[in-house]
UniProtKB/TrEMBL annotation:
Residues 1-37 are annotated as: Disordered. The keyword Isomerase applies. This is UDP-N-acetylglucosamine 2-epimerase (Non-hydrolyzing). CDD domains: GTB_UDP-GlcNAc_2-Epimerase. GO terms for molecular function: UDP-N-acetylglucosamine 2-epimerase activity. NCBIfam families: wecB. The keyword Isomerase applies. Belongs to the UDP-N-acetylglucosamine 2-epimerase family.
Amino acid sequence: MMSSAPADRSDSGRVSGAADADGARTDRSQGAVRAGQAPAPAYGGYASAGEIVHIVGARPNFVKAAPVVAALAKRGVRQSVVHTGQHYDDRMSAVFFRELGLPRPDVDLGVGSGSHAEQTAALMVGLEREFISRSPGLVVVYGDVNSTLAAGLVAAKLHIPVAHVEAGLRSFDWTMPEEVNRRLTDQLSDVLFATSPEAVGHLAAEGVAVDRVHFVGNPMIDTLLGNIDRFDTEALRSRVELPESYVAATLHRPANVDNPEVVARLVARLHEVADQIDVVMPVHPRGRAALTAAGLAEHPRMHLLEPLGYIDFVTLVRASTAVVTDSGGVQEETTILRVPCLTLRPNTERPVTITHGSNRLVVDSELPGLVSKLLAGERLGASAVADVPPLWDGHAGERIATILADR
Ligand code: UD1
Ligand code: UDP
C-alpha cells in the first residue's frame, strides 16, 4: 500500500524549475541561478572576501552542517551557506532547513540531477563562479557526495583552503562513488575533521600530515542529540498511519537499487520480512521506479512513504523494532538509538557502528532469518556494549567551530 507522509508532496520528483531551499524558483535548464537575486538573504548576506563558505547539496550534508554552522554563528564568525541543488525536492532538501535551524542558503546553484560527469561538471562550473565572486577564506565540505568532491576540486585549484567534515572514512570499495569522493576530497583538504579513531588512522596511513587532522566526534550525532526531545512517536502516529510494531527500511545505494535483478531479489526478501512484521519504508527517489516496478508495494504489510523530514524519520527509526538499510547516516543514528540495524552492504566505512553499536552487515538471504531471531528476542551485534563511539557526545560542532575560529 502507498500511504501518504505528512507535508506537501507537490514538488516531488521534479527535476527542473523546482523550488529551492528558501522557496525561490530556479530554472535548472539554464544552469546556475542565484537565489540571491531574490530579496535579501536571511543569513550572513553576500560574502565579503575571507569568510567561511559551507557547501551543502544532498540530504546527509544538511544534517552534518547544521551544528557546525550554528556553533560558528555563536562565535560570531562570518559565514555563508551555498546550496548546490544536488538534492532539490522539498522532502530531500528544504524540509531539513526548516527543521534543523539551518540558515536559508545564500545561494542555490540549482545543479540538479544527471550522470556523474554531468552533475560533477555542472557543480564545478557553478561553484567556480561562486568562489571567484565570493573569495572565501575557507570552504567547508561535508561527507562524500558529488557536491563535496566538486567543491574540493574547485577550491583547491583556486588556492582556497578546504576543511572536510567526516574525513578519513574508508569502505575500501572503489565501486562506490562515495569512496572515490571521500578519498579525493581528503587529498585536497587542508583541515580534516574525523568522526572516529580509525578514520584518523586511515589518513595517517595515506600520508596526510597529522597536524591537519582533528578527531572531533560526529556532527550528525550532535543533530540527533540536539533534537532528541522532538522525536515524538505519538505526534508522528497522529499524522502517519503506523502499525503497532514494524521494521523501518531505507534503500538507495546504486548497488542495491539500480540493477532490476538485484531489486527483484531485495523486494522478495522484504516481502519475506513483511510476512513476519510490518515494514515501513520511506522511499528515496533514486530507487522509486525500480522498486515500484518490482512490486514492492504488493504486500499488505508493506507501508511505503515519501521521503520523511528529519524529525519524522528519526522518530520512525527510534520506535522501530529494527532497521534494514544501506544508508551511512542511518548506521550511525541507530548506533546511538540502540535500534538493531541490518545493513544490506558487503562493507561499511563506519565500522565503529559495529564495534560500538547495533549495526550488522548482512546479505539479503539472511534478512528473514535475522528478523525472526530479533522477534524472538535475540540480540544481534555488539548492541550489548555499554559505551557509544568516542566523542559522539553532541559537541562535535563546537569542537569544529573552535578549531576553525582559531584559524
Ligand atoms: C546522493 C549521494 C549519496 C548519498 C545520497 C543521500 C552522490 C554520488 N551520491 O545519492 O552518497 O548517500 O545522495 O541521499 O553524491 N532525485 C530526485 N529528487 C531529488 C534528488 C534526487 O528525484 O531531490 C532523483 C533523481 O532521479 C536523481 C536520483 O535521485 O537522478 C539520484 O540523485 P543523486 O543526487 O545523483 O544521487 P543519490 O542517489 O541521491
Ligand atoms: N533521512 C531522512 N528522511 C528519510 C531518510 C533519511 O531525514 O526519509 C535522514 C537520516 O536520518 C540521515 C540522513 O537523512 O540523517 C542520511 O541520508 P541518506 O540515508 O539519504 O544518506 P547517506 O547517509 O547514506 O549518505
